[in-house]
Design brief:
343 residues, alpha/beta, 39% helix, binds 6-O-phosphono-beta-D-fructofuranose, Rossmann fold
Length: 343
């Protein structure tokens, strides 16, 4: 049996662990051939691929990014795109394609399955951890490690200068990274997209804390955090070529507002893509590996249109439509626990 694999959307630590696991079990256990398409769906559209072998995958487990490359291009963007996918897969005698991606890439995979273009098996990835039906996506844990270390470092410089430090982390629609890193790093306040913030209340909390003799504060802000209606002016974010909002930088506006209201010196650190680059931590290597094994098993079982997922500590398969239809937000229970530590 021949299998295809591609990685789409933003990269994240752990992608190579998935590819390596797929290739290992495919070759060693099932005697399959795996074709790795380059740069997401682009690789199928342009017929750019390589045969992946155990030998080729050596040394890739600790490597960040994806050895296959990634883009957000997809077959529905181009005239005749779905026909090309059909033709290329039939030419290579590909039975199914393992699609490793986030919400956008997996939604496209589901559409291709439903339109009978190609059989797919999804593997969820994103540092944002916002995909439904799976407890955690690989990449998230590494991102939290990086953000937590940054917050720890900001603490000491904040204390030395009696400053407010804002750490802006990724999190487009959800605040998992902010909530986890904020809790792990002992943040004074955390702002997440799920709960609109009031800048006056934020400033009051910081002032109260300073008046009580704590002159250094860390505010963790998810890039997608939103102020309550009419309380603060934000610049309209630009969009990329796929129409996605380009976030990042909201903290600069928040810092100005805080300084104006409190009179305390405030500095901003935007962590950005540092959270996505570099080596995956052990948890993400293991999760990626387990998901990769489950994906190739699903391919062997012809269990198409499914996504492999972590549920109650076990790896399961769930219908793709169930997973892509729901955004996983920070749970009220988690947020209630986190709020106990806010100023
Ligand atoms: O979805 C993952 C993510 O890292 C978001 O947190 C962030 O907003 C976005 O990707 C950034 O995408 P790009 O690399 O295209 O700027």
């Amino acid at each position: 049996m021949n299998i295809g694999i591609l990685t789409g959307g933003g990269d994240c630590p752990g992608l190579n662990a998935v590819i390596r696991a797929v290739v290992r079990k495919a070759e060693k256990h099932y005697g399959m051939t795996v074709f790795g398409f380059h740069d997401g769906w682009r690789g199928i559209l342009d017929e750019r691929f390589e045969e992946l072998t155990i030998e080729r995958m050596r040394g890739t487990l600790p490597r960040g990014g994806t050895i296959l490359g990634t883009t957000r291009d997809h077959p529905y963007m181009f005239e005749g795109g779905t026909d090309t996918v059909k033709n290329v897969c039939s030419k290579l005698d590909i039975d199914s394609v393992i699609v490793v991606g986030g919400e956008g890439t997996l939604s496209c995979a589901l559409e291709l399955q439903n339109d009978d273009v190609v059989n797919v098996i999804g593997v969820p990835k994103t540092i944002d951890n916002d995909i439904g039906s799976t407890e955690m996506t690989f990449g998230f844990s590494t991102a939290v490690d990086i953000a937590t270390e940054a917050i720890d470092r900001l603490h000491t410089t904040a204390e030395s200068h009696d400053r407010i430090m804002i750490a802006e982390v990724m999190g487009r629609h959800v605040g998992h990274i902010a909530a986890w890193a904020g809790m792990a790093g002992g943040a004074t306040i955390v702002l997440i997209p799920e709960e609109k913030f009031n800048i006056d209340s934020v400033a009051e909390s910081l002032t109260r804390r300073h008046n009580a003799g704590r002159y250094a504060s860390i505010v963790v802000v998810a890039e997608g955090a939103l102020p309550e209606e009419g309380t603060m002016e934000l610049r309209e974010p630009g969009v990329d070529q796929y129409g996605h909002q380009r976030l990042g930088g909201i903290s600069n506006v928040i810092a100005e507002e805080i300084e104006n209201r409190t009179g305390f010196e405030t500095r901003v650190t935007v962590l950005g893509h540092v959270q996505r680059g570099g080596s995956p931590n052990p948890f993400d290597r293991v999760l990626g590996t387990r998901l990769g094994i489950a994906a190739i098993d699903a391919a062997n079982d012809k269990n198409y249109g499914k996504m492999v997922a972590l549920q109650n500590g076990d790896i399961m398969t769930v219908p793709l439509e169930e997973a892509v239809g729901s955004l996983k937000v920070v749970s009220p229970e988690f947020w209630d626990a986190a709020k106990n530590f806010f100023a």
